[in-house]
Design a protein that fits this description.
Layout (H helix, E strand, L loop, with lengths): L1 E4 L11 E5 L6 E5 L1 E9 L4 H15 L2 E7 L14 E9 L12 E4 L2 H7 L8 E5 L5 H6 L16 E5 L1 H8 L7 H5 L2 H12 L5 H10 L4 H20 L5 E5 L9 E7 H16 L3 E5 L6 H7 L7 E5 L3 H13 L3 E6 L1 H17 L3 E7 L16 H6 L9 E2 L6 H16 L2 E7 H5 L1 E5 L19 E2 L5 E2 L42 H16 L8 E2 L6 E6 L3 H13 L5 E5 L1 E3 L5 H6 L3 E6 L4 H10 L4 E4 L8 H13 L1
Parallel strand pairs: 3-10, 4-7, 7-8, 8-9, 12-13, 12-14, 14-15, 15-17, 16-17, 22-23, 22-25, 25-26
Antiparallel strand pairs: 1-11, 2-3, 4-6, 5-6, 11-18, 16-24, 19-20, 21-23
Length: 642
């Protein structure tokens, strides 16, 4: 969904409750500047769908927003158990925000497991809406409740709203020819209607969505719409909800333009399509499904009208092999995966380095090692991306910072791959992939021209005057070799992984040639033109916080908190991790302290310390979840004071 907003202005990031007003004949309406809501229930309760719909309506209303879906790795985890809890957190505001929020102001708990799994994150005084129908003795015992938390006083510090969601939903749908079990499945829509009333969300989009989603089952569509409306009406009429809330559109947060809500994987998919269009090349994806990268394959398969070809391979190795073949044939070639898949693709990435062909390798990182945490986030593949191949096989590395930035980072990765004839690793992660935020849809004239010139004929003259084609004769500015489409008369040349002779591309075992080729490939990567890193330092700080990837939101939110408290701290964030920006060494040495927060055990810090001999300090987290702003603010304050 899209919306028009006006020009930007600065707004402090805080939880401030504004004035209250009471229109005639209605309940109290309280104005807030932001709110954080978490929907939680069984993985079969539709929490992700509920969160997505609330997010879509919030985006169409014009709020700034950030989301954090969190779900089990199992397709259908055991019902009513702690490992089976699925949640969706949404932070929306009338101003610019950066994270899904540290702690929910409102928790919607569909069963005892959802309450127990999430209550530790809920601050005292927050609102908790519980589905009392699910708080049976057996369900509570399953998660370790000896007594009902709704009755034993353990929730006295919260504003608890006991709502028999299941009963109310079944009652609202009694006119439909549904079994009780079928009717109960709509309780998430009842909850969505209630929350939509509480926060004045639009309803037309959700009703249209439900009618479209269940178009082939009109009775189910009508039942879900009825449950949604019943939830709205319940909020309007019940005495338990005496107050509703308004969060005004964030009209001052964004530049003028047309916006839509977008997830990282969707933005990345659109970036690939835009890059292929700007390069005037067909887009080819060779991929094997893997969480959390599979949505890119799903999305691109819908866009054959843009010349996109998708191939679901039988394994990771076949996926990248097909993609590299497409690159040899003149396509903008892509393979998508997560950390375990990068390990399997490593030999073919090395082949792409040797062949010097453009190839995008997209790694949507997740917790490891091995199979690890498929549905949780981590950024622990940096060293694998940097060094995870045999021999000297340097590869450029690009990392987006937000879900919307996945679009721009993808186009940048394509620029590097096409210009320098090299595979490029794009490091996103599960937090960015599944999270969402508003994205300004760019105009086509804002996108870079990525068109390339294929080799057309001979490019070298021998001593005897014969004109020949040398596949490894390089552009003096970029050190890129020619891109010769197979089948072009006169451009036949050898291909394969054995070392090439400089210029001719013939097989070579000569030690001096190998040394020269290794150094040349490294020089090509080192010479890639990347922008200088920008430093945000308004107060002349002595401490710099340096980040990369998805830590941007929490780091920036923490820096804002510190500056609001009178602290001086500088911030810089890296998009290009190989090669590093040319000015990075100068920037690092300008500060007494450098702190690098990462969702790993210090991989960027290791690279920075090794390359620049700077005593960078790591702050690390590897629990499968993104940093919280308050947590980072505390750590950075300790660094400043230390």
């Amino acid at each position: 969904m899209t919306s028009q907003v006006s020009s930007p202005a600065e707004h402090a990031d805080g939880t401030v409750v504004g004035e209250q007003r009471k229109p005639a004949g209605t309940k109290d309406v309280r104005r807030l500047d932001r709110v954080i809501i978490r929907f939680a229930g069984d993985s079969g309760d539709g929490m992700q769908l509920t969160g997505d719909r609330f997010t879509s309506e919030t985006a169409s209303f014009g709020n700034d927003l950030s989301t954090l879906p969190n779900f089990p790795a199992e397709i259908r985890a055991p019902a009513g158990t702690l490992p089976g809890v699925s949640s969706f957190q949404l932070h929306f505001a009338d101003h610019d925000i950066l994270t899904p929020g540290d702690a929910p102001n409102v928790l919607v708990a569909m069963n005892p497991a959802a309450l127990k799994a999430n209550i530790a994150d809920v601050p005292r005084g927050a609102e908790i809406i519980v589905n009392t129908d699910e708080f049976t003795k057996r369900a509570m015992q399953k998660v370790g409740y000896a007594t009902s938390p709704l009755e034993d006083g353990s929730l006295d510090g919260y504003s608890v709203h006991p709502v028999p969601l299941t009963t109310l939903t079944v009652e609202a749908l009694k006119e439909f020819d549904l079994t009780r079990k079928e009717a109960e499945r709509s309780k998430n829509m009842f909850a969505l209607g209630l929350l939509s009333w509480m926060y004045h969300r639009p309803t037309e989009g959700t009703e249209k969505f439900l009618a479209t989603k269940f178009a082939k089952k009109p009775d189910i569509a009508a039942a879900n719409i009825a449950a949604f409306r019943a939830g709205w009406n319940f909020g309007e009429t019940t005495e338990d909800f005496a107050v509703s809330y308004e969060i005004a559109p964030a009209t001052a947060a964004f530049p003028t333009g047309t916006y839509r809500n977008i997830s990282g994987n969707l933005a990345l998919s659109y970036g690939l399509i835009a890059a292929s269009t700007q390069a005037d090349l067909p887009l080819y994806l060779g991929s094997y499904p893997i969480t959390p990268a599979s949505d890119i394959l799903h999305e691109l398969s819908r866009h054959k009208n843009f010349g996109v070809r998708t191939f679901q391979a039988e394994d990771e190795i076949a996926g990248i092999g097909a993609a590299l073949g497409a690159a040899f044939g003149g396509s903008l070639a892509v393979t998508t995966t997560s950390g375990p898949g990068v390990a399997l693709k490593s030999e073919t990435i090395g082949l792409a380095v040797s062949l010097e062909l453009p190839l995008l390798v997209i790694d949507i990182q997740r917790g490891g090692p091995s199979t690890g945490l498929p549905t949780k986030t981590e950024q622990a593949d940096l060293l694998q991306a940097m060094f995870g191949r045999n021999g000297e096989a340097p590869v450029p590395i690009v990392a987006p910072r937000t879900p919307a930035d996945c679009f721009d980072a993808t186009i940048e990765a394509a620029r590097i791959a096409l210009t320098y004839r090299t595979p490029v690793l794009l490091l996103s992660d599960g937090y960015l992939a599944n999270g969402s935020e508003p994205w300004r849809i760019p105009e086509t004239d804002e996108l870079p021209d990525l068109r390339v010139q294929f080799a057309q004929g001979p490019n070298h003259t021998l001593d005897d005057g014969t004109e020949v084609f040398w596949p490894y004769k390089r552009d003096p500015g970029t050190l890129a070799r020619p891109w010769a489409i197979p089948g072009t008369p006169g451009l036949e040349h050898r291909i394969g992984g054995i070392e090439k002779q400089d210029g001719t591309g013939n097989i070579s075992y000569d030690p001096a040639n190998h040394d020269f080729m290794v150094r040349t490939r490294q020089a090509k990567i080192d010479g890639i033109d990347v922008p200088d890193v920008e430093v945000d330092d308004p107060n002349g700080a002595t401490t710099l916080v340096l980040g990369w990837g998805s830590t941007y939101g929490p780091i920036t939110a923490a820096v804002r908190r510190l500056r609001a408290a009178g602290e001086a701290i500088a911030q810089a964030h890296l998009r290009h991790l190989n090669p590093f920006p040319a000015n990075l060494g100068t920037v690092l040495k300008a500060y007494d302290k450098v702190v690098i927060p990462e969702m790993n055990l210090g991989q960027l810090a290791t690279l920075v310390r090794a390359k620049y001999l700077v005593d960078a300090h790591s702050y690390n987290q590897v629990n499968g979840m993104p940093f919280k702003a308050e947590q980072l603010a505390t750590a950075l304050k300790e660094a400043i004071d230390g």
